[in-house]
Design brief:
With 369 residues, the chain is an alpha+beta fold. Helices cover 19% and strands 23% of the residues. It binds S-adenosylmethionine.
Length: 369
């Protein structure tokens, strides 16, 4: 399939520049989706799943749900695509089926309600999916957008109508709109599972939602690799080109954000270390101790502890209460020590008038003590 976003005219050049600046085109691998989704299978039964940042020609989210439609017992799968595929190559040529492939280069939506299992073995393979796209009830429409938002924008009225139909939203949203995307799903009271970055946990909006227990992180966090379009510039780190010429980028702090519960979330950490004031110094500008690795959380400490935000996904709600994040809790240093300026982070007193500014911390209390 030819790229529908190939920057040919001046309008497209402007669009292309904006996209480059935002670095939003990170395409998720099928294996990452499979590994995470297996923790939520029962919760998808008889549900309408919406992938609202997903061009079916490119998205492995669409691919995963199409292939597993019957195995998961989905009621409906909807995918909406923002402004067409920016990566040529058509990894899903099975969508090139007359009647379902929308005309032109406009963004579009695909609605799937019917996946015939022609092999009769319950397992859906690619052949079945081809048939599914010709099957009764499965439709595609072009999207037009509205006065405020472009075609396929998750905030546009057309896409909001799909959102209202959906039970669960599963996607990797644009990084540049991540906080707005989550706020949008919360406004419409939707269940979701979306790819994000562990660092987003400390931003005001996400920190507040996590502290309230409205959202949490999914099972996996850490390295995640993504296909990126050919127009992405090479970088010194976390960038490579594979043997097929495909460009890749990776995040060391990839993760999932969700409001779907899953069994592993309730597994408690095995703690072994005992508290001593020397091993766990208190912060200067908040009443909590510093625990620099979540594996060293003292087993016998009943009060507030600051731990790295990258450990949020390891915290069972049955074991720890999340009190808040350093950005919201830290007192300005100037209020405590004349001449000191820092704020928004915790500080440790190193002696001799020196203070160490810590990275973002999540503050927890062991509720089992
Ligand atoms: C991080 S990429 C992930 C794509 C796909 N969900 C996947 O995981 O492979 C985010 C996608 O959202 C699209 N996008 C950007 N702004 C959007 C918006 N306002 N509404 C909907 N989609 C948007 C981008 O074009 C991009 O394809």
């Amino acid at each position: 399939m030819a790229s529908s976003l190939a920057p040919t005219g001046s309008g497209n050049k402007a669009l292309s520049k904006a996209k480059i600046a935002k670095q939003d085109e990170f395409y998720t691998q099928l294996s990452d989706i499979e590994n995470e989704l297996r923790h939520y299978r029962e919760q998808l039964h008889d549900k309408v799943v919406l992938c609202n940042c997903d061009d079916p020609y490119e998205s492995n989210f669409f691919r995963y749900f199409a292939l597993n439609f019957n195995a998961l017992g989905l009621k409906k799968l909807i995918a909406t695509c923002y402004d067409g595929s920016s990566v040529a190559g058509g990894r899903l040529p099975l969508l090139d089926i007359e009647g379902l492939k929308p005309e032109g280069k406009q963004p579009y939506a695909v609605e799937i309600i019917n996946v015939p299992d022609v092999n009769g073995d319950g397992a859906i393979d690619l052949t079945d999916v081809e048939l599914l796209l010709k099957s009764d009830g499965n439709v595609s429409h072009t999207l037009k957008g509205d006065a405020e938002y472009g075609a396929g924008d998750f905030r546009s009225a057309e896409c909001v109508n799909f959102l209202k139909q959906a039970d669960v939203v599963v996607t990797n949203p644009p990084f540049s709109l991540f906080r707005e995307f989550i706020a949008h799903l919360i406004t419409y009271n939707k269940k979701f599972l979306v790819v994000g970055n562990q660092n987003q946990v400390a931003t005001d909006e996400i920190a507040a939602l996590i502290t309230n227990g409205d959202i949490w992180q999914g099972n996996y966090s850490g390295d995640m690799a993504f296909r990126v379009p050919d127009y992405y510039e090479p970088r010194n780190s976390r960038f490579w080109i594979d043997e097929n010429g495909q460009k890749w980028r990776s995040l060391g702090t990839g993760c999932w954000y969700t409001n779907l519960d899953f069994a592993k979330r309730h597994e408690k950490l095995n703690l072994f270390k005992k508290y001593t004031p020397d091993d766990f110094p208190s912060y200067v500008n908040y009443d909590a101790i510093e625990v620099s690795r979540y594996t060293e959380i003292p087993v016998d400490y009943p009060d507030e502890m600051g731990i790295p935000v990258t450990a949020v996904s390891k915290l069972s709600p049955d074991q720890f209460e999340i009190v808040g994040f350093s950005g919201m809790l830290a007192k300005p240093m100037a209020d405590l020590i004349p001449g000191q300026t820092g704020s928004g982070r915790f500080y440790l007193d190193l002696g001799g008038g020196e203070f160490k500014r810590m990275y973002d911390r999540v503050v927890v209390r062991n509720k089992t003590l």
